[in-house]
Design a protein that fits this description.
Blueprint: E1 4-6, E2 9-11, E3 15-21, E4 26-33, H1 36-53, H2 58-74, H3 76-87, H4 91-109, E5 116-120, E6 123-132, E7 135-139, H5 145-158, E8 162-166, H6 173-182, E9 191-193, H7 201-206, E10 212-216, H8 219-231, E11 235-239, E12 244-248, H9 254-266, E13 276-282, H10 286-298, H11 318-333, E14 337-340, E15 356-359, H12 366-369, E16 376-382, H13 385-393, E17 397-398, E18 400-404, H14 408-415, E19 422-425, E20 440-441, E21 444-445, H15 450-455, E22 458-463
Parallel strand pairs: 7-8, 7-10, 8-9, 10-11, 12-13, 12-18, 13-16, 15-16, 18-19
Antiparallel strand pairs: 1-2, 3-4, 5-6, 6-22, 11-21, 14-15, 17-20
Helix pairs in contact: 2-4, 3-4, 3-6, 4-5, 9-10
The protein binds nicotinamide-adenine-dinucleotide (NAD).
Length: 466
């Protein structure tokens, strides 16, 4: 089993906890349960390492990061295997996650670091520099464990911060293995990875040695992280939940749009923060789109992600499985019509639910108002743009959204009226390392990725000479 990484060493724990394969519900591994003393040791190691890492030439930091990306690719097979077993995603999705993690690490390594000279009337009055925070505490969820971690590790390392990272207790193994793989590439203490059940997380967010918290997870937990950060006035980046709307105008190619919407709603069994979670389609093409989506749902190959032909894996946790079934049952009670799927589990071991397309729901149904984070997609009809913009914005969330039309100008005009950090046009869930990911409203604080993401790991220092 992979160990924790603390101060450049592989570290075991006295206690362990069970890790479940969601495709079978069998316990297939034991993960180390870090103690508070081990958390303290990781933070102390990161504090010591910070003193030299922040002074290390940025060219050297870049080289180390590129070497980390090369190492990830060289060990892709085992990282993919851990991901599929602990999280349940189909093989190709895990492959995309590992290769994407390496790509993100490499791309971030090449980003320029910000810094400006400020002039007034042509005379220099000061320089605005950026300084790293120190120790960054990074906490990530179970849906994309590895890439969520790399989105934090890469910018932290480039900017001269050091890291203590805690993966989700449900999916610790690929991330712990990553720590082991990078051990000889990074100076001791620069990247520490500890695993534990949720009990240890508050000790981490409250730790006085951590100067910056970067968190990806649910809005409910994000609020706790935000509150905990207040005690020591820590920097905070929060990437939280979403309830992404897709708005489909009447002029689209229905079959083509259905394929893209299906992919962006059911990837990873819908367990993606920026998956499409509700579709508003113009009344003229509502029925045609539902037929296409239902047909795609019927073609899904459901099973263990280790089988490379599988396109839809299990839900990742018992709690998520129960929640999605509860929302689907509620949808049925609210008069929802299942054009594909049913409010029930697939009759096999594991947390499997077949992709469901549901029509006829009121806007107040819980499947529409809550983040389902699962393979059940409500399709709602609209007739006027003003009406659909208002319905799409009627949510506490503001992560991302999409607008679909062959009239790009019309689509961009609708997009600009949506209260979301990202609005895609004729695509959805297409993050790029060059572009920021930033939720608004209850979906987050601050940004990840690109130049904007780097700023999240830096504090401003103004030097002004008389
Ligand atoms: P979660 O909030 O339950 O857990 C996330 C992490 O928080 C885990 O590592 C967990 O151990 C830790 N945690 C638990 N209690 C804590 C506490 N008191 N203080 C600090 N950390 C604590 O989320 P999840 O169920 O793992 O993930 C699903 C959620 O994450 C969904 O809402 C999804 O939308 C969101 N998400 C958002 C993004 C994004 O970029 N916006 C990306 C992926 C997932």
């Amino acid at each position: 089993m992979p160990s924790m990484t603390i101060d450049g060493l592989c570290v075991e724990a006295t206690d362990t906890y069970d890790v479940i394969n969601p495709a079978t519900t069998d316990v297939f591994a034991q993960a180390p349960q870090a103690t508070e003393d081990q958390l303290d040791a990781a933070v102390a190691a990161a504090q010591r390492a910070f003193l030299t890492w922040r002074e290390t030439d940025v060219a050297v930091r870049r080289e180390v990061m590129v070497a980390c990306a090369v190492r990830m690719r060289a060990h892709a097979d085992e990282l993919i295997d851990w991901l599929v077993r602990e999280q349940g995603k189909p093989f190709v999705v895990a492959q995309g996650e590992v290769m994407g993690s390496a790509r993100w690490m490499e791309f971030t390594a090449g980003l320029p670091l910000p810094g400006e000279v400020v002039e007034v009337d042509g005379v220099k009055v000061g320089e605005v520099r950026r300084k790293p925070y120190g120790v960054v505490g990074a906490i990530v969820p179970w849906n994309y464990p590895l890439i969520s971690a790399v989105w934090k590790i890469a910018p932290a390392l480039l900017t001269g911060n050091t890291v203590v990272l805690k993966p989700s207790p449900f999916t610790p193994l690929a991330t712990l293995r990553l720590g082991e793989l990078l051990l000889d590439l990074l100076p001791p203490g620069v990247l520490n990875i500890i695993s534990a059940t949720d009990d240890l997380a508050p000790a981490m967010t409250a730790h006085s040695g951590i100067r910056k918290l970067t968190f990806t997870g649910s809005t409910a937990t994000g609020k706790k992280v935000f509150a905990a950060a207040a005690e020591h006035i820590k920097g905070v980046t929060l990437e939280l939940g979403g309830n992404d709307p897709a708005i489909v105008l009447a002029d689209v190619d229905v079959a083509d749009t259905a394929q893209k919407i299906f992919a962006a709603a059911f990837a990873n069994s819908g367990q993606v923060c920026s998956a499409i979670k509700r579709v508003y389609v113009h009344a003229d093409i509502h029925d045609a789109l539902v037929v296409e989506l239902a047909s795609l749902a019927g073609k899904a190959v459901i099973g263990s992600g280790l089988d490379e032909t599988v396109t839809v894996g299990p839900l990742s946790t018992q709690a998520q499985f129960d929640k999605v079934l509860d929302l689907m049952n509620d949808a049925a009670e609210q008069g929802g019509v299942f054009a594909a799927g049913a409010p029930e589990a697939v009759d096999r071991p594991g947390y499997f639910i077949a992709p469901a397309i549901i029509t006829g729901l009121p806007d107040t149904a819980r499947l529409v108002t809550e983040e389902q984070f699962g393979p059940a997609l409500p399709i709602l009809s609209f007739t006027h743009i003003d009406e659909v913009v208002s319905r799409a914005n009627d949510t506490p969330y503001g992560l991302s959204a999409s607008v679909w039309s062959i009239d790009i100008e019309a689509a961009v005009s609708v997009a600009s009226r949506i209260d979301a950090g990202t609005v895609w046009v004729n695509q959805h869930m297409k993050p790029r390392p060059q572009l920021p990911t930033a939720g608004v409203k209850a979906s987050g604080v601050g940004a990840e990725n690109g130049a904007w993401g780097l700023e999240s790991f830096l504090q401003i220092q103004t030097i002004a000479v008389a």
